[in-house]
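Q: Start with the shorter request: fold the first protein.
A: Done. Sequence, then structure:
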Amino acid sequence: MDMTIGKFAKAGNVGVETVRFYQRRGLLPTPNGHEGVRRYDAENLRRLKFIRQAQTAGFTLEEIKQLLDLDAGEDRERARSLARARLEALSVRIAELEAARRSLEKLADECASGKTGPCPILHSFGV
């Protein structure tokens, strides 16, 4: 599988500029061009998909770079450590979002039950 940057980006469900950005950040290699056209292979695509999945899991680009570097050296302990740290950060964020949801549900109920005066939702946000 040999792809131009456009086909490679499409296969990875990203834009061409995203591919170039990842290359500048050292997450993706910039392949050598043959006759002025750079070609991407299946390994490049595997790496691109990994980057996207890791971002979805909440890893920063720096953490993703560390994971990619660890993949080459097979340092499972460090990879587990990074994953556990990400899990803890996600747990904190989920708790924050759940608290925000409960607060908004309460405000929405208060807004629905009151017929006069300012809306509690608008009032709580300082409007």
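Q: Next, the second protein, separately.
A: Sequence, then structure:
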Amino acid sequence: MSKLNKDILFLIFEEFQDDSKSLFSCLMINRLWCETVIPILWRNPWCYDIKYSNKSYLFLIIASYLSDDTKESLTKQGIQLPSFSYKLLLFDYLSYCRSINTDTMNSITLVEISLAYNQFLLQQEFYRIFMKKFPELKYLDIKSIKHQIFYFPEAKLRFESLYELKCDTSIDISYFYGLAQLCQYIQRLIVDNVDPNDYHGIAELIEAQKNLKYFEWKDSHDFYIPGLDSYKEILHALEKNANTINHLNVYFMFVNNPTLCKVLPKFRRLKTLITSFWPFNDEEQVKMCVYHDLEIFKIDYYGLKEASIIIENSGGHLKKIFLESQYEIDDYIDNFNDDSIIFIRKVYERCLSIEYLSLIFPPLKEHFDEFEKLLKICQNLKSLLLAVYWNDVEGENSLLKNGEKLLKILIRSAPTNLREIRFICDVEFSLDVLEEFLEKWRGRPALSILTYKSIYKEENYVKLINKYKNNGIIKDFRCESFMNVVNMDFKL
């Protein structure tokens, strides 16, 4: 491996570009590996899980690029820079960089500079260096930014290549107007709505794009302004990009549904749809949402009826269907029994390629039968989230019976590809039933189980689980928070 030429090594390391631990370990092998890894690590160095607030060497690396005149000017303004070693850096790190992250920049400057005004001045100079040194700018995260970096002389050339922009609604509206003039080929745009106010600038930026493929909007507030259809401009701007957007992830907290109903059917090329259909009461409008290329579909539990319609009209390419909830499921769901069984049927009729699936259904014989039929048909399943949910209050015996039925079905009919099962709501497993299930799972691929029930932390369960971990039947068995269990992006 150490004798592979640099081009081959680069292609191999590229596959690990999101795995900082592996890449950092490669730095220590030899000089060739180090020279090959550094450009990959520094392409977007702020994306890794690192606590930048205590990494003074990153501050020193960036500060070493300051000119003597700039250092002198900053010193005159009362900014005491740390002493530098005038040894040349081993690499021209910033020449590899194509990313700016405001939060990281704030953390790095905070390491050495305490006064807010001095931090602002120093950050301004750092951004100026980035504009000069970066060959291009691909990733920009400007949440809470206060610097008008698009006014720098080099900004126009750098921003033309911008691929991904992350921002929030707390920044000045003029920033979006400036970006709309410079950035017209953004492919990924992610907006965190922390301050519901004037969205005109963001709408202008969206509308200016000519190749927008991924759009994400998340409401991170709970301010309701009566009578204001605040998302109308955003939806209108998105509609103008409907022919290019293939990944749509929108959660509008106070959306005017007639407006959303008119816009969603326009996105015919979607491969990913993540949204909330509640309350979305116009069934005819939902039937107009036809996405033949859809591969990933995520909604909340309360949109089962609408989800079934979307699945029915999909092109049979769905690989991931996620049902999520912000809270534990404890409210009555309208027409739950009927909608949940229809949902199961639509999955096994239209989604033969499904790999990741969330299901919610009551513990009734008809539903268990349909679930078993799904397992037999959908042979590509790798991960299941199962919510056995009942509106009436149940005792412990009922929960244990539900668990026993579920595990027997899984033993009889689970596809051979199944590697992970998540359990929530009204189901528990007695020690004997769980042991019988694990014993019968012997000979299959190791299984990961995720639940939020604290019963499995008890000593007798822990002893049983460790036994089957040690002999390779269980890969992992974890008790996590409800939110971690339902979040399919949370990995074991």
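Q: Describe the second briefly.
A: The CA atoms of residues 39 and 96 lie 5 Å apart. Residues 1-41 form one domain.
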